[in-house]
Amino acid sequence: MASEFKDDYEYVPAQKIDIKDLPPLDPETSKIMKQEFGTGSKLTIFYYIFILSIPILNWYAPEFFFSRLWGGMTYSWFFTSIVAMALAFGIAYIHTYLYEKRLKQYASENSTDSQERRNVN
Known about the structure:
- This protein is mainly alpha-helical.
- It is about 70% helix and about 5% strand.
- It has helices at about 25-60, 60-65, 75-120, and strands spanning about 70, 75.
- A hairpin with a 2-residue loop joins strand 1 and strand 2 (about 75).
- It is elongated and about 65 Å long.
């Protein structure tokens, strides 16, 4: 399959890369990655707490969580499926919003820096 594209592209055979051979990240990229990891970790912990609280609530409040909400749907099922899915979409929106906000912040900082460099004569 790789031989099909040999004429169009410079073929580079696949090989393993040792992590020690990679150059270190620049400070800006490292800062962005740390902030993204922190945001993702906090949102993940929040979601896990919600998901893991449902069996606990089922154990301690079965009369409420196993009562009927609509037809055959119980509150437990409603929280596990409908609310959890809405929460997943909300978390994805929050993460994307914060990422784009950081991206705009770094873009404006970099454009200010480049303009200052141009004006210094």
